[in-house]
Structure formats: structure tokens, C-alpha cells
Amino acid sequence: MTPIRRAALAAATVVTLVPAVSGCFGTDDDAKASQPASKSGITVANSAKVLAKATFPSSMAPGATVDVVLNELKVDGRLARLSVTMTPHARGATERPTPYRLNNESGLGTSLIDTVNLKRYVVVKDSSGQSLQSDDVTTNLTNDQPGMLNYTFAAPPQGVDQVDVQLGSWPVFQHVPVAR
Hints:
Organism: Actinoallomurus acaciae
CATH architecture: Sandwich
Helix content: 10-25%
Number of strands: 10
Distance between the termini: 27 Å
Oligomer: single chain
Mean pLDDT: 81
Largest sheet: 6 strands, antiparallel
Keywords: Signal
Number of domains: 1
Low-confidence stretches: 1-41, 43-48
Protein name: DUF4352 domain-containing protein
Structural class: alpha+beta
CATH class: Mainly Beta
């Protein structure tokens, strides 16, 4: 097995295993430690378990919203893994919530934006062409319950300690710390 296939297999295994671990929204202390990052209502938290969080509107049902929490962005070798918790609040929806439906029936197109080197990092693919990410269309979420999503990217270079995270059509999460 080539080193690239071995790395892709390891990443796919991690992506498969990580959703089995439940997400954590943190404590009230975490929320009190949060500071506004922009006028959009996105907050950057001072907790190791919550990097940033925001609540966004969704057209899935009248008054529907979705809580999005960035739990971890960690570089491991040449890859960076982003862990996201999404909690839909779509009472009255006729279909089960998915990231695709919550994002106005559009793929999330999750990416990292390196504002130091002016680069955008998109989700990497394995040797069979599969994106190493949770599927936006088929990942079923439960109303009012957190669901875990995972994304794998090429790692930003040393010296890049924070990036912006684009997730769906919602405002960008700015200045998200990168753990190494």
C-alpha cells in the first residue's frame, strides 16, 4: 500500500469513527467566556471544546434555525481535521433535517480560508475520489439534538495559527484557531 493510500485510509477511518463520539456544547461558563467576532452574531469562545458558535436562520420550516458549533480544528501531519456540531431547530418541517436542507437545499462547500497566504483549502479526496467529509445530503440530523460533522483538508503551513471557516451560505467564522 502506498503512503498516500495509507494516509487516505487512515483519514477515512478517523472520519468514520469520529461521528460515533458525541458532541459537546460546553458549559454556561464557556458561553460567558465567548466574545463577539462580528456583527453577524458569531462568537469565538475561549474553550478548547468550542472554537466558535452561531445560530443561523434556515428556510427548512417557518422560524427554523440551526446552531453551528466549531468544536476542533487540528493539524495532524499534512492534514487538518475540522469537527462541527450542528443542532437543527426546525419544528413543523415535513422532512428530516440534513445539512443540505438546513442550508437552503444547497451543499455546504466547507472550506478553510488562509488569510495569511491568501489560499482557500477545500475538502481533500481519497484515492477513489471520495471527499473526506460528512455527506451534506445524506447525514440525517435529529431536531433539537446535536449531530457531529467532520471535514478533512490539506493542512495550512506552519505559522498559520488561525483561519476563517466557510460553512454553507452562512456568514464566515473568522479567526478560528488552528491546533497543532
